[in-house]
From TrEMBL:
This is Fe2OG dioxygenase domain-containing protein. Residues 1-20, 278-299 are annotated as: Disordered. It comes from the Eukaryota. Belongs to the alkB family. Signal peptide: none annotated. It holds the Pfam family 2OG-FeII_Oxy_2. Gene3D superfamilies: Alpha-ketoglutarate-dependent dioxygenase AlkB-like. InterPro entries: AlkB-like, AlkB-like_sf, ALKBH9B/ALKBH10B-like, Oxoglu/Fe-dep_dioxygenase_dom. Residues 143-240 form the Fe2OG dioxygenase domain. Residues 278-288 have a biased composition (Low complexity).
Length: 333
């Protein structure tokens, strides 16, 4: 298999038959006075990438990381914590757009930084997008045009948040190297560095694809506690047209007519409907933004009365910030 491409059909016999899909996640929580399934919209797909394909993807990520450490990527494509501490984040590679999860030192707010450029998606990651759309993991109406690669060492994490509305729904994250758990809930608690508590936990097998949409993307927060083993995740997202970087040009390889989906495109994402109960006992429904948004922005939170946990811009720079790391080169992961 080429190191720069995946067989869109999955090889002989079309590997779609090995894919298993779970779409019945359920966990009820109180939202605006009404019990709501906060996991509605989540899907877990396994068997999308073969072990050999997973190894090629991991090798590609390691090569990108090596280039980032040597300054061979664009300035804000690669970042890692200035000083490694348990619970202070992970190394990241951004492709397609430069994104801040928190206000950076230049005063840029959370969201896509439209006047910054990062490297485009490399060929192998574009092949992943073609597979995800062609095998109906992601809808043809929402083809990703950006991604963020998270490279975890032991003890690295992602704190509780909701992905920013600069990105459309659904989006997905693909897991490699080691299985881990992702927590969901309205009131995720920060217990300490890299330690979180939530009301719902989902295990992410190696090679699995978790699709986030509806309440699972916009009502429940999610986080990844400190991982027990080295891990890589790749999150693919489509940017809101109104938030595209100023110099962004659509990649011809990712245009819909070049993706050859395996089935007709699903219906466009519709706003989630959240039922609420008025004081007189009558029910009304309200719509969130497209994709089911009920919470704005990406919120790094210690909600629920947990221990104080501060993400310092010195220890953990905003994503895309160029930093000289004291973490050291720990070799290929």
């Amino acid at each position: 298999m080429s190191s720069s491409d995946l067989d869109p059909a999955g090889g002989a016999g079309n590997g779609m038959e090995r894919v298993e899909r779970k779409k019945d996640f359920r966990h009820m929580e109180l939202v605006d006075g009404r019990m709501v399934n906060v996991l509605q919209g989540l899907e877990l797909h396994t068997g999308v990438f073969s072990p050999a394909e997973q190894q090629s993807i991991v090798d590609c990520v390691h090569d990108l990381q090596d280039k980032g450490r040597r300054g061979l990527l664009r300035e804000r494509s690669y970042s890692e914590p200035r000083k490694w501490m348990r619970g202070k984040g992970r190394a990241t590679i951004q492709c397609g757009c430069c994104y801040n999860y928190a206000t950076d030192r230049r005063g840029n707010p959370p969201g896509i930084i439209r006047d910054e450029e990062v490297d485009p998606l490399p060929p192998l990651l574009k092949s992943m997008v073609r597979r995800l759309v062609g095998w109906r993991v992601l809808p043809a109406a929402c083809v990703p045009d950006s991604c963020i690669v998270n490279i975890y060492d032991v003890g690295d994490c992602i704190p509780p948040h909701i992905d920013h509305r600069d990105f459309l729904r659904p989006f997905c994250t693909v897991s490699f190297l080691a299985e881990c758990s992702i927590l969901f809930g309205r009131g995720l608690k920060v217990l300490g560095p890299g330690e979180f508590a939530g009301s719902a936990s989902i295990s992410l097998p190696v090679g699995s694809v978790l699709v986030l949409n509806g309440n699972g993307a916009d009502v429940a927060k999610h986080c990844v506690p400190a991982v027990p083993a080295k891990r890589i995740s790749i999150t693919f997202r489509k940017m809101d047209r109104a938030k595209l970087p100023f110099n962004f040009r659509p990649d011809p390889d990712l245009l819909l007519h070049n993706l050859a989906p395996a089935a007709p495109a699903p219906a466009p994402v519709r706003p989630a409907v959240i039922a609420t109960t008025n004081s007189n006992g009558s029910q009304q429904q309200r719509q969130g933004p497209a994709g089911g948004a009920a919470v704005e922005g990406e919120q790094m939170s210690a909600a629920g009365g947990g221990a104080s946990f501060v993400l310092s811009s010195d220890d953990f720079p905003a994503l895309g910030a160029k930093a000289t790391s004291t973490r050291g080169s720990r070799g290929r992961r």
